[in-house]
Specification:
Layout lengths: L9 E6 L11 E4 L5 H13 L6 E4 L2 H9 L5 E5 L6 H5 L3 E10 L3 E5 L12 E4 L4 H6 L9 E4 L2 H9 L5 E5 H6 L3 E2 L7 E9 L17
């Protein structure tokens, strides 16, 4: 089950003319439901897909990339802010098909409902990429405690819901999914997203010897 909205818009779009022509039939990206990546996949589907969206959510971007390489999905979407995104650009089994700009859903610091007193130095769950927002959004009177790095913003929300941490830096979608309430200001992140398909597009750019040393 996905929780995509129709509110996100592409603020810029570029298609790569040399990418393999692959019909969009399904999209793989980072889950679980409620991530910014899921919203980006929904935007891609609205731009290029037909019929009800088919989006598969994985517990890591790497598994999403595996799915497109293995033919389980036709397209793979990754946020360029992801620290290991360069791995997908270097992979000769993948081809960059398009790039777009999209504002994420609103991010904020959220807690379980009914919690009256947040510790002065709360523990906070967050995906690694948006960690700088924690200091930006921390309410007056509180300071940043230990940060627990999670696999996604939705996983961060789940950690707060399960009382593993005091707060989660998460999206409005994930906060709603897990019944959390924001205690801070909220803001989006204007981000670039890359779309990959399977294919040897990268091989066309090789000159001289291949990686195996053959001319």
């Amino acid at each position: 089950m996905t929780t995509m909205t129709n509110e996100t818009l592409a603020l810029g779009w570029m298609s790569v003319s040399t990418a393999p022509a692959v019909r969009l039939t399904s999209i793989g990206t980072l889950g679980p439901a409620g991530t910014s990546s899921e919203q980006a996949a929904g935007l891609l589907w609205r731009e290029l897909g037909e019929g009800p969206p088919v989006v598969r959510l994985f517990d890591s971007y790497e598994r999403g990339a595996d799915a497109v390489r293995d033919g389980h999905v036709s397209h793979f979407v990754v946020a360029n802010a992801y620290r290991d995104a360069h791995e997908f650009y270097m992979d000769l089994r993948l081809s960059l098909a398009s790039v777009f700009i999209m504002d994420t859903p609103l991010y904020g610091l959220a807690r379980r409902p009914g919690v009256q007193d947040v510790p002065a130095r709360p523990t906070i769950a967050s995906h690694r990429s948006p960690v700088p927002l924690i200091h930006q959004l921390m309410p007056a009177g509180l300071s940043v405690g230990d940060i627990e790095v999670m696999a996604s913003t939705s996983a961060a929300a789940q950690a707060a819901r399960n009382r593993a941490v005091d707060l989660a830096l998460t999206t409005e979608v994930a906060a709603r999914n897990y019944g959390l309430e924001f205690i801070s200001a909220t803001r989006p992140i204007r981000m670039v997203w890359s779309v990959f398909v399977a294919g040897g597009g990268g091989l066309a750019g090789l000159t001289g010897q291949t990686a195996e040393g053959e001319g």
